[in-house]
Amino acid sequence: MENLRPAFAYIVVYVEDVAKSVEFYANAFGYNVRRLGDSHRWGELETGQTTIAFTPAHQHETDALTGVVRHAGSDRERAPLEVCFAYADVDAAYKRAVENGAVPVSAPEEKEWGQKVGYVRDIDDIVVRLGSYVSPPPVHQA
Questions:
Q1: CA-CA distance, 22 to 31, in Å (whole number)?
Q2: Distances in Å between the alpha carbon of 44 and those of 57, 67, 71, 80, 141?
Q3: Where is the VOC domain (predicted)?
Q4: Does residue 138 lie in a domain region?
Q5: What is the pTM of this model?
Q6: Proportion of the chain above pLDDT 70, given as a percent
Q7: Measured between alpha carbons, how far is 115 from 65 in angstroms, rounded to an integer?
């Protein structure tokens, strides 16, 4: 029987300006650009096994099929999406992100679950979590 579990391939982030968002993520979070279409309607970063991709927030192809993208109504609201990146040095990653245009939300701090975490907002107001790697729990064998 074949494996019916699919590979998680993409997360698509709807943004106002694909080229600007691709450049921002490359500079602020340290990724290489995999692809930026000539029309600037699609961009991808080299992010490992799963690709982070960007497309315009409003386009008739997807708006008509799945609805219009909603934005937070105020600075006390956020999109129903959080982009999370893991780093060995969260403090350096946070500093780099802020120096490259990310809006600081919460400086890195140790959390009770054993992870160091800081938060910023990207140029489209999407919350980005910068966290340390978390070791998986030990496997108990009977």
A1: 9
A2: 15, 23, 22, 21, 41
A3: 7-133
A4: no
A5: 0.80
A6: 81
A7: 39
d(CA 96, CA 118): 12
Q: Which two tokens stand for residue 70?
A: 């909603």
Residue 87 CA to residue 117 CA, distance in Å, equals: 10
Determine the structural domain holding residue 33 and report its residue range: 10-132
pLDDT value for 71: 65
Q: How many domains are contained in the chain?
A: 1
> What whole-number distance in Å separates Cα of residue 14 and Cα of residue 124?
9
Q: Read off the CATH number of the domain in which 120 is found.
A: 3.10.180.10
Structural domain includes residue 24: yes
Residue 139 lies in a domain: no
The reply to whether 3 falls in a domain is no
Tens-place pLDDT, residues 117-128:
999 999 988 899
- Find, among 21, 69, 26, 24, the residue nearest to 47 by Cα: 26
